[in-house]
Design brief:
The chain is mainly beta. A twelve-stranded antiparallel β-barrel has the order 1-4-5-6-7-8-9-10-11-12-13-15. The chain has a three-stranded antiparallel β-sheet with strand order 2-3-14, with no helix packed on it.
């Protein structure tokens, strides 16, 4: 799975997401570009923007990957975001894939202000599929928010034989605790913790040797987050959203 902060429906991350390690023996394209539309941009159960255009590019060499991703909301009041990510994936033993990553994000027009950028490192692991389900576990630490996040996930791919495609299902639940969610705001640090959960259903459809169209339906919710002291944005509130995008790989 891509290390990008989910581009939801067309294969880039954040995930809602959240990025989890891919098995290192999986063939990764040397160059990949993604372009798409999301009716909402939600990150770890918190809505950062409404309708948005999203785009990214990823370069891969061996076990190393680097990516650049951006979210541009259509409406005022949404957060603009640019994310630069690097990751290294390896397989220490059979049936276990690990990925270490670091991401630097820049934010613009954040509602309420107080956040200009963040710097996060993470370690994610996936186990071999059990009865068709692939479990995963990830931990992230953000140095600017002084925040720790743990997330568990499970994924399943179901063949749609008549369509010549697959239905990709992902479910996740996480918990985040931060000591300073507004590091660039004056005043004392704003500490908060909360839980979040959700899932996604995506159908990638190959339309040529280098192009894939992906449609997705997503859901997320969060509980316990403080609107004043928690991560910027609005709680997802058990909301649904859709994504549509195209992926080009070479």
């Amino acid at each position: 799975m891509s290390p990008f902060k989910t581009l939801s429906g067309f294969g880039l991350v954040a995930l809602l997401a959240l990025p989890l390690a891919a098995q290192v023996d999986e063939e990764v394209p040397a160059v990949r570009a993604d372009f798409g539309y999301a009716s909402r941009y939600v990150f770890r159960g918190v809505e950062r923007a409404g309708q948005s255009a999203q785009a990214g590019v990823e370069l891969a060499h061996g076990n190393f990957r680097g990516s650049l991703w951006a979210n541009q909301p259509f409406d005022r009041g949404g957060t603009m975001e640019t994310n630069l990510n690097a990751a290294y994936a390896w397989q220490p033993v059979n049936g276990l894939g690990l990925e270490a990553s670091v991401a630097h994000s820049w934010f613009g027009e954040v509602p309420g202000g107080g956040v200009k950028r963040s710097l996060e490192a993470g370690l994610a692991g996936t186990l071999a599929a059990v009865a068709g389900f692939t479990p995963g576990l990830a931990y992230y630490h953000d140095f600017r928010f002084r925040a720790d996040t743990a997330q568990a996930s499970v994924a399943r791919s179901i063949a749609l034989t008549r369509l010549g495609a697959f239905l990709e299902l992902d479910f996740f639940a996480g918990w985040a605790r931060g000591s300073d969610w507004r590091p660039d705001a004056p005043g004392p640090p704003r500490a908060d913790s909360y839980a979040y959960w959700g899932g996604a259903a995506r159908v990638p459809y190959r339309i040529g040797p280098h192009a894939t169209i992906t449609a997705g339906l997503h859901y997320a919710d969060a509980a316990g987050r403080s609107p004043a002291n928690g991560p910027f944005g609005l709680a997802a509130g058990g909301q649904w959203w859709a994504t549509l995008g195209v992926n080009l790989d070479f």
